[in-house]
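batch job 7 of whatever, protein = Uroporphyrinogen decarboxylase
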Amino acid sequence: MSSNVAPTPDPRLADSAFLKAARGEEVPHTPVWYMRQAGRSLPEYLAVREGVGMLESCMDPALTTEITLQPVRRYGVDAAVFFSDIVLPLKAVGVDLDIKPGIGPVVESPVRTLADVEAIPDLTPEHVWFITEAVQALTRELGGTPLLGFAGAPFTVASYLVEGGPSKEHARTKAMMFGAPDVWDALMRKIGGIAAEFLAVQVRAGASAVQLFDSWAGALAPADYAAYVQPHSARVLATIGELGVPRIHFGVGTSNLLGPMGEAGADVVGVDWRTPLEDAIGRVGDRAVQGNLDPTLVFAPTEVMTARAAEVIEAGRAARGHIFNLGHGVIPSTDPDQLARLTEFVQTYPLTPRR
Ligand code: CP3
């Protein structure tokens, strides 16, 4: 049953390589998990999702728990990522949206005016009781494996709300940002508040760390990111910082933004594969990094993949801390056995002293 009392953390979490790396402490091995590990590349995932809609599965604590555990059982990764979606909290407060297979989130009535923004309710824990229940069950099941909670950052979630669906250019979103700064500010504050509460619900129920996904921030010039987006992400990260768990902040195509994204205040900055990790380390400030093997390398011969993984691990030794990951999500057609070999390679790679 759900309760408002935070569970006592499992004592084995103190030895977690994932949490140690996030805090910049020495690790026994480079910790590894994968964005989208709990998704379509696993046959056991496809089996339990048969005939169940994406949002429906996110609102069913038993199913959410099972799907979150699947990649942990299969790969023995160093962290579980909570199975949900960045638009789930909007759905929970009553925004009419769906996640369509092969397309992504689609919003029935896109947000365009101040009245549209003001019509979106703030998130309360009651809206997402099923999240609390699933996280509590997972925390018990996972024992010494940390659960990573997550939310979408204000810009990336705003893009779905304003465009009404997935977008390459984010043209309407940026038009609002440039042309109606008061509406933009209200929207970013609204989504930021929802994101912060969504993360807090997960942490209060037992999540050991959180990731704030600003997947589409790479669409912005640095000055615009700094003026219109970073302060809102920073507010979300500061609110969660008060709960004392490590915070990861990730975006795609953010080579130019790694400095300001680091300054938004996370403990760890996620890096996609387009930026060499050694360059990223210089840009994020005194923070840990996460990444950044090209997700397509999992389709290469095993020895090619592991040679490139070794380069990523070696580069990561110069960082304050390093969590191994792909540069973006697992591609649905990925061979799970190859991901299992990659996981074992990273976890058994002999570490030299930190540079
Ligand atoms: O990482 C995990 O395995 C945990 C679960 C998770 C999902 N979405 C499940 C999902 C997480 C962390 C997300 C985050 C998310 N959702 C992001 C940020 C991460 C990123 O990839 O940059 C974004 C931008 C979204 C929005 C969204 N939801 C997209 C782009 C899609 C994919 C559309 C498609 O089908 O190609 C979704 C749907 C979605 N979210 C699926 C899953 C497993 C597929 C739905 C299905 O199986 O029917």
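notes: The CA atoms of residues 159 and 170 lie 6 Å apart.
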